[in-house]
Design a protein that fits this description.
single chain; alpha/beta; TIM Barrel; eight-stranded parallel beta barrel; globular; binds phosphoenolpyruvate
Length: about 260
C-alpha cells in the first residue's frame, strides 16, 4: 500500500505574528504546487499565529494544511489558559500535535491526557499527530520497543478502527529532538515498524497500512531522504529545520 508522505513543521514557541507571516510567505512562495499532489504539507505554528498563517495560504491558494501544537479536550468552560478543539477547528486546523515529548516532560502530560485529546480530536474530525518516543535511558536499557508501543496502545484506548484511519503517529526519540543527533534510518525504521505492528494488532492490518507513521528528531535536508526511504516512515515531524523555509522545502522535496 502506498501512503502519501506528510511533512509537518512544528514551529514550537517561535515566531511572533510578523515573523510567522514572513515564514509562511516564504514557504508558500517556494513550494511547487504540483508537489502537493505527491506530499501532504502542514505547519503547526503557535496559537496566535494560526490565523495570520492561514490568511497567507488562503490568499495564495496554496494547499498547505494547518495544525495546532496542543489543545484541551473539553469544548469550553472555566479552563483558564487553555484552547479548545472548536477554536482550532474554526480557525482551519486539520491536524493537531498531541503528546509531544516537550509537553510530556515539561508540562507533565500523561498517557491519559493524550488519550483524552486524541478521542476528542477524532470526534471533531481533526487528525491528531500522536507523538511517542523513548528517552535515552529507556533506549539504553533496551526496552524502547515495549515503551513506545505501550504509549501507542494508551493513546488509542477506546478508539474504533474506522476512526484510527485518519490519525497520524510520530515516532520522536527524545534523545534526537533538538539535539542534532538523528536516529539512523535503521533505528527509526525498527520502531516505526513496531508501531505499525501495534496498530495492526489493535485495528487490523488494513487500518495499520493506512495510518501514517512519521519520524521526528533532528530531521533536516541532509538526512531526510534516507529516513524517508524506509518502508514504514511516511513523512516527518520537523522542529528546528521547519523554521527556515529553504530547509523545510528541501525536506518536502525529499518526501516526493
Ligand atoms: C520536534 O520537536 O518535533 C522535533 C522533531 O524537533 P527537531 O526537528 O528540532 O529535533
Amino acid at each position: 500500500m502506498t501512503r502519501k508522505n506528510l511533512i509537518a513543521g512544528n514551529w514550537k514557541m517561535n515566531n511572533t505574528i510578523p515573523e510567522a507571516v514572513v515564514l509562511a510567505q516564504e514557504i508558500s512562495n517556494g513550494i511547487y504546487p504540483d508537489i502537493l499532489d505527491e506530499v501532504d504539507v502542514a505547519v503547526c505554528p503557535p496559537f496566535v499565529d494560526l490565523k495570520p498563517v492561514k490568511s497567507v495560504f488562503e490568499f495564495d491558494r496554496v494547499n498547505i494544511a494547518l495544525g495546532a501544537q496542543n489543545v484541551y479536550w473539553e469544548p469550553k468552560g472555566a479552563f483558564t489558559g487553555e484552547i479548545s478543539i472548536p477554536m482550532i477547528k474554526e480557525i482551519g486546523c486539520t491536524y493537531c500535535i498531541v503528546g509531544h515529548s516537550e509537553r510530556r516532560h515539561l508540562f507533565d502530560e500523561t498517557n491519559e491526557d493524550v488519550n483524552l485529546k486524541v478521542r476528542a480530536l477524532i470526534e471533531a474530525g481533526i487528525a491528531p499527530i500522536i507523538c511517542v518516543g523513548e528517552s535515552l535511558s529507556v533506549r539504553d536499557e533496551g526496552v524502547y520497543l515495549d515503551f513506545v508501543t505501550a504509549q501507542v496502545r494508551a493513546a488509542y484506548a477506546g478508539v474504533e478502527a474506522a476512526d484510527a484511519v485518519n490519525t497520524v503517529v510520530a515516532y520522536e526519540p527524545v534523545w534526537a529532538i533538538g539535539t542534532g543527533r538523528t536516529a539512523t534510518p535503521e533505528q527509526a525504521e525498527e520502531v516505526c515498524a513496531a508501531i505499525r505492528a501495534t496498530l495492526a494488532d489493535l485495528f487490523g492490518v488494513d487500518v495499520a497500512e493506512q495510518v501514517r507513521v512519521l519520524y521526528g528528531g533532528s530531521m533536516n535536508e541532509g538526512n531526510a531522504e534516507l529516513l524517508l526511504a524506509e518502508p514504514d516512515i511516511d513523512g516527518g515531524l520537523i522542529g528546528g529545520a521547519a523554521l527556515k523555509a529553504s530547509s523545510f522545502l528541501e525536506i518536502v522535496k525529499a518526501a516526493k
